Predict the 3D structure of the following.
Amino acid sequence: MNVKTMKKQHFINKLFALVVLAGVVTSCGSSENSKGALGSDVASQAYVTPGEHDDFYAFMSGGFSGQISVYGLPSGRLFRVIPVFSQDPEKGYGYNEETKPMLETSFGFVPWDDAHHPELSQTNGVPDGRWIFINGNNTPRIARIDLKTFETAEIIEIPNSGGNHSSPFTTENSEYIVAGTRFSVPFPQKDVAIDTYKENFKGTLSFISVAEDGDMDVAFQVLLPGYDYDLAHAGKGKSHGWMFFTSYNTEEEHTLLEVNASQRDKDYIAAINWKKAEEYMAQGKFKEMPASYVDNHYDESKQMAFSETRNTVKVLIPSECPGLVYFLPTPKSPHGVDVDPTGEFIVGNGKLSSDMSIHSFDKMIKAIEGEKFETTIDGIPVLQYEEVLSGIVAQPGLGPLHTEFDGKGNAYTSFFISSEIVKWNLETKEVLDRVPAYYSIGHLMIPGGDSKKPWGKYVVALNKITKDRFLPTGPELTQSAQLYDISGEKMKLILDFPTIGEPHYAQGIAAELIAPNSLKYYKLEDNNHPQAIKSPNDSRIERDGNIVRVYMGAIRSHFTVDNLEGIKVGDKVYFHITNLEQDWDVPHGFSVMGANNAELLIMPGQTETLLWEPQREGVYPFYCTDFCSALHQEMQGYARVSAKGATTELKWSLDE
Amino acid sequence: MKAKFNYLFLLAILLPLALFAFPLWKITLEAPQYPGGISMYIWINQITGDSPSTLQNINILNHYVGMQFIVPDSIPELKYFPWVVGGMSLLGLLFFLVKKKSLYLTWAMIMIVLGGLGVYDFYLWEYDYGHNLDPKAPIKVPGMAYQPPVIGSKMLLNFKADSWPTTGGYFLGAGIALSLLAFWLEKKKTRKTAVLEKAIATVALVTVFGLSSCSVTPRPLALGSDHCHHCKMKIVQPQYGAELVSSTGKIYTFDAVECFVQYKDENNISADKIALEMVVPYDQPGTLMDATKCVFIRSAKLPSPMGMYITAMSSESKIEPIIDGYDGEIYTWEKLQSGIDNLPGLTAQLP
């Protein structure tokens, strides 16, 4: 080989090396982008050894499933789906006689809702693990879930609301949770032409008080112009006493909103001084308005739910209550409004804006004191934008929706359109890092990330679209959550996991605040269900007209009576079944052939009731549906059904 | 100087009164689905559990095999035991006031006899519960009885039953021991120093005995249930395996020689912590042999469980009958361990 060919060869080698290098670089790049460089070291961060527990509970809304799902972080393991707004045949929720009243509304039985924002109760601005609240968007409601039992304890309907979206965000000590209407409606509801929107439609922001024992009540409503109130967050620390709501459609349009409600440069964040509202309430400056709404409680002692209808609501009118409400102009249909842990920065996530506007609480107070008003709407002063602005985050991404905080001076904002999370500094408003989300992130969640003391270790992206991320399952694909480690300077994707329904928003909390209080079973001696039996000897059948009540116990591995006779076609048979077990994790199920509802799933010490209306003569089996023991399969019985008018006597027995 | 050992006796006779405040015996049942176990406490006047519902839960479990329900109200001993214990303390008080030293021994002897009877009674109850089974029981295992041990551990189907004295029982034992000690010390009052020496010697003897009871003997590998401490896989091949017995008698099992060597290496186990190093020679499947007495060969025809082709043989003479014309290297235990990282590569030659 001569020198020339050697040089040529050398050049080719170099070129080849470059091509390979480029290949490596691009392939690295693409794997970074789509797979998040899941090396084994990264995977181990989300790995929880079998038998070990997670560090955090994550409560994810089920979105249109109407439920809450409970996951562990960092593993992403699903522990439980808590039935809230939707009937759940698996648990008998909304099917058994005890829980049917939970789904009562002023419209009757509404067995579904769209659950968006779980919100943990707080003490001193920090999640305390007592309850979690969640809003029902469609038929406006708020549910309270007891985190001792992980069961829905109360559902209250919100009157004068047309879609409960800006809800149920809490104040520092859960003095109130709020319920702002997303759709303004005629106030009070009446039959009017839709194009009279501007005269007739109003928006209400409701403050729901939470008592020591959790009992919720509509304390008062603030009547506002007919905008769409989108999201909310309470002030904290120095801004404790204030609640902030975003609004869109300040154009007050009623048709083709995607265009017509996107015309103004700025919409408003409504700042409500709820301490002031309390003063006005004490002074009696409210109007008592007729309303019809239902409050449903689950009574743990009686083990059944009760519905109460309420007929009035107290309303505060801002024009009559100076200092109650101020509007903060905020660019382009702000979606989330998020207050940082110090209470100073009020982040308006202008979803159609190219920049993000961050307001300052201190400046807001100064502007109010100096009366720096741009104008007044229905008696509500509109503060001058420049006077309340702390600064802008310039062009951070497209479609900012929500912001959470790590407690170290950083904010993390989700961008729906550019499908990413952007980390930025609250003081300098400087973008520090960005990481893609797969795909179309809505909310994001840092455990405690909307409280005074975030556990700033992880952020969870709650994604609307998954496309190619998982094995396909026909046209309907799962939605997903993604877990990122944020303990370092750069965010690092460590896990993808599918979710139930739409994981709209979520809340996270350190496991030790909940796990030690988790109930193991209900004490039989505290069971005050009117149809409970405390001993197998109390088993019996009673008839009253065509109502037949079967009082029955379940204990491994039999029903305390298993041969029932004397039931007739046309009877309404109520199976009142008490699980007589007093041990951890020994539920019994109950189902009977031909029942037109669902099964019962009865926890130890609990009594539940299934209604059965037998339609044909014959002998029908019933059995335990929850694999309770080695002889679960033998846990069965027969109910004999005689013809209407037959003379078969009521008879019940076991082992005779 | 006159030591007052009579107060030692006074303490001794009061100690059994602790039985009114603490349970005497504890039976714990352990199974995988009962993390932490279910514990039942036997008092002189009642039977309790970890929670108010423990007895019900034990009864539910027991009914599957046809055992009778444990109903404390139907056990007469629980009614008169408190009187026996109280009475014995009273009797002791009487003996104490009488100031006759030989009565100390008498009291101790009565206590020992009563205690022995109590244990025998306990055994009878256990025997009855364990053997007197409902003929209609859903689960019947021929020849199986469910009598828990009086003291110690025993597997009862899926449950491991542990039965041991607990707080109250210790007080009782201490009371008897102290009364004996008081008697003995009173008797030997004049030779106090010697007594002390003897006491120290006894303590030392007991300690030595206790320590030496941690045996350092190897245990045969249980195929299909023992796991490899290194790779965590189940041990299944009878021709391969190894075992390390630590100086405190702890057993570490391995499915292959290579796992054994790597485990030692990665965990820096020093020689003084090792009592025995055993391997399974290929020519003697299922038996363990001192690794230093074995030879190790590498042949592509003999793939070892973890893929390093290392096979132990009980002696060089056993190689030829198993592999015709083996011409590879023969390693000693020492040589194998030092050279394991640099073994030449081999590819399987399966027949």
Remarks:
- Chain A touches chain B at residues 555-557, 581-583, 629-631, 634 (CB under 8 Å).
- DSSP finds seven helices and 46 strands in chain A.
- The CA atoms of residues 186 and 192 of chain A lie 8 Å apart.
